[in-house]
Amino acid sequence: MSTSAAGAASPETPPDTPVTATARRARAAAAALAPLPRTPRDAALLAVADALVARSAEIVAANAEDVSRAQAAGTADAIVDRLTLTPERIAAIAADVRDVVALPDPVGEVVRGSTLPNGLELRQVRVPLGVVGIVYEARPNVTVDAAALCLKSGNAVLLRGSSSAYASNTALVGVLRDAVAGAGLPADAVQLVPGESRDAIRELMRARGLVDVLIPRGGASLIRTVVEESTVPVIETGVGNCHVYVDARADLDMALRILVNSKAQRPSVCNAAETVLVHADVAEEFLPRALAALREAGVTVHGDAAWQKADTAVVPATDEDWATEYLGYEIAAAVVPSLDAAVAHIRSWTSGHTEAIVTGDTEAARRFTALVDSTAVMVNASTRFTDGGQFGFGAEIGISTQKLHARGPMGLPELTSTKYVVTGSGHVRD
Amino acid sequence: MSTSAAGAASPETPPDTPVTATARRARAAAAALAPLPRTPRDAALLAVADALVARSAEIVAANAEDVSRAQAAGTADAIVDRLTLTPERIAAIAADVRDVVALPDPVGEVVRGSTLPNGLELRQVRVPLGVVGIVYEARPNVTVDAAALCLKSGNAVLLRGSSSAYASNTALVGVLRDAVAGAGLPADAVQLVPGESRDAIRELMRARGLVDVLIPRGGASLIRTVVEESTVPVIETGVGNCHVYVDARADLDMALRILVNSKAQRPSVCNAAETVLVHADVAEEFLPRALAALREAGVTVHGDAAWQKADTAVVPATDEDWATEYLGYEIAAAVVPSLDAAVAHIRSWTSGHTEAIVTGDTEAARRFTALVDSTAVMVNASTRFTDGGQFGFGAEIGISTQKLHARGPMGLPELTSTKYVVTGSGHVRD
C-alpha cells in the first residue's frame, strides 16, 4: 500500500453547464439504479421494447425530418438508408431489446471470494460502472442498443449521437425515458447530451468525477479526439487495420476463401481486412489467384513491387496504404520473406484489432499467436469473426482495441466494475 | 460492431526525446518478454534477488549520497529513515523478490474459453500489458518491488522515482538490469526514466502508443496531475479518504476497537480512516467513549456541533475537513440522523477507497454495502484490511480507486490484459 502526503481528496467538480447538469442527473439516477436487483431493470427494458413498437409512428415522423435534411444536403443513398427508420426496423430494434433482457445479469456476480486465514469473508462483486457516456455516429439504432445494454448492466447512460440523427435520437430517447419512468425507474437513467455543437462533446470529455467512462463509437478521427482530449476514462473502440497473413505452409484454397471473406464480405466494418501479407515461398502461386479473386470481388489492390509485378492493375503501395483503414473495396498487399517479417509489419502498422494467419504449420500458428499483440488473433479463420455476437456474448457495446479494462468485443460484464465486500466480526489489524 | 469512416489507423508517434527513446527501448523489450514462458522470467527474478544481496555495499554507498543530501536539506528524521537502505533492508527487499517468484504466473491463463456453435475454438488468454510506467515518491524499495511485479507479469517497466532517491534508484536499477541481462532477458525490461526534472514526467504522460499504462503511486497532487494531463491510460491509486460509520445497532465496544484501529494503527497510509460518522441514536453513549479512546491514541478530532458539544477539545469541522486525507493523528467526525444520511455524506466526500460500517443489523449491513460505491466496503472490520497482502494476493503494485480495469488492491493479474485466440479450419462468415 502506498504512503502518501496529506491532501484534499474530494472529487473534482467540473463547472456547471447544461452538459454537467445532465451528467449530475445521470449520477443521481445511477445511484438509484446500482442497488436494484435484476427484476425491475428487466421490467423497464420490456416496457421500452413495448413502447418502441407502440410509438413507432411518432419515431418514424421524427426520423423523416432527419432523412429529408440528409437528402437535401445531398447525402449518399447508402448513408440515408442507414439513417432511415421504418416500423419494421423499429420492431427489429425492439426485438433486440428483448434479447438483451434475456441475457444473464452481470450485476452482483461474485467474481472472486474466499475466507481469509483470519476469518474475514472476502467477496469481489460486480457492480455497475455508474454513468456511461457513448459518443457515436450515424445510425439511430445505436441509441436504443446502447441504452438497453447500459440499463441491463445497471448503468445510467449519456448519449451523444450524430447531429444528422438529432430528431430521431430525441424522439427515441423520449420514448425510452417515458417507458423507464413508467416502470418506476428514474427517467434520467437515459439522457441525450444537450446541444448539437462539438462543445457538448468537449464538456462531456472533461466531466471527470461525474462520468465514469466514455465510449466513442465511430470513425478514427472521432476516436482519436476523445482519446487525446478526455480526462474521463475512455475505452477506445473500433478502428480496425486488420491483416491476413498467408504463411508458407498455407492451404492456398483456404487462404483465398479467408482473404476474400475478410476483405469483401462486408468491407465497411472494423473487422474487415485492410492488408494481406503473403510469404515469399507461396507468392508465385498465390498472387495471381488472389488478384483474380479480389478483382472478381471488386477490390482494388495497392501492392508492393512483387504484387505490382504480378499484375499491372495493382496500384503502387505507400506507407500511407499500410496505415489506412480503407473500409471499402481496397486492400494493401505485400510479400514478406518470413513469418517474423509479417509479424514485424503487423506490429508496425496495426491498430491492434484483429490479425489472421492461414497456415497448416502448428509451430507457425503458435509463433504468430504469441508474437502478434492484437485484440484477436485468428488461426485459419476470417478476421470478420471478431464480434460480440459471433463470440456468443449476445450483445456488444463496441470492440475495444485498448488493453485496459476490456479488450475485444465488449458485452455486459465489460460494462461493470467490481467492489470488494469484506465481512468480519470486529476484526482489527495487529 | 461499429461502422467507421475511413482513416489512417497507424499508432501515434510521440516526438523523439530521451524519454520517448527510453520508452521505445522498453517497447522492444516488452515484445521480447511477451512470448516467454514462466521459467526464464522467474530465473531473471532469482538472479535479481541474488544480485541485490551480492552488491548491497554498492547500493548502500549510493544510498548514502541521497541520505546525506536529505539530511543537509533538513528533511524530517522519519522521511530520512524511510529513504535509508542498509544491508539488512536490502536482504529483506531481495526476500520480497523471491516471494514474487513463488506467486502463480498470470500470463497465459485462459480466462474464458469455449467452442462456438460453428466449431471455432475461442480462448481469451492473459497477456502482459506491455510497457508499464510507474511514477512514485519516496522509498527506494518501490523501485525493486515494482520492477519485480512487472517482470513477473511479463511487462517492461519504466520507473520514475523521487528525485530525493535518485542515486539509490540509479544504483538499484543498474543492479537489476545487469541481473536481468545476465539471465538472458533484455536489460531494457527495467529502465529508469532519464532526467530529474518534472518535464520527464510530462513526456512520459504524453507517450501514448509507447507506454501502455501509467500508475502513479504517491500523494494526491501527483496523482491528480497524472490523471489530468496523461494521454497514456492511467490507473489511479491510493488516495484514501476512508470513513467508519457506527450504526444505531452497533456493538459499541467493537465500534471503538474498529475506529481506533482504522484511524491510529498506521495513520500515514491510504486505508487509514479519516472521518467517523455516528448514528444519532448511539451518539450520547458513543461520543464520550470515542473521544477518550481517540485522545489516548493521540488523535485530534475535528467535529460537527454534536461532537463539539461532547468535548471542548474538539476542533470545529469545516467542509475542508470532510474532504481531507489527513494521513496523521487527526480525524473528522459527525453525527448523522440515519444510515442513509451516512451514505449521503460518504458519497459526497469519499475518494472511493474504503468505508466501514459497524452494525449488528443485517439489513443495515446489506443496505450500506449496496449503496456505498467504493473500492471496498467493510462490515464489522477495520478499514486497514484493504491491502493486497491482507487480501491474500501475495503482492500489490498499488490500490486502484478507479472503476476501469482494476479496482482495489492490484496484484499480478491486474498487470495483464487479455487477447482472444480463435482457431478454425478455414472458417468464413456467411
UniProtKB/TrEMBL annotation, chains A, B:
Domain of life of the source: Bacteria
Protein's name in the database: Gamma-glutamyl phosphate reductase
Catalytic activity: L-glutamate 5-semialdehyde + phosphate + NADP(+) = L-glutamyl 5-phosphate + NADPH + H(+)
Domain Aldehyde dehydrogenase: 19-299
Organism field: Streptomyces hazeniae
Molecular function terms, GO-annotated: glutamate-5-semialdehyde dehydrogenase activity
InterPro entries noted in UniProt: Ald_DH/histidinol_DH, Ald_DH_C, Ald_DH_N, Aldehyde_DH_dom, G-glutamylP_reductase_CS, Glu-5-SA_DH, GPR_dom
Gene3D superfamilies: Aldehyde Dehydrogenase, Chain A, domain 1, Aldehyde Dehydrogenase, Chain A, domain 2
Gene that encodes the chain: proA
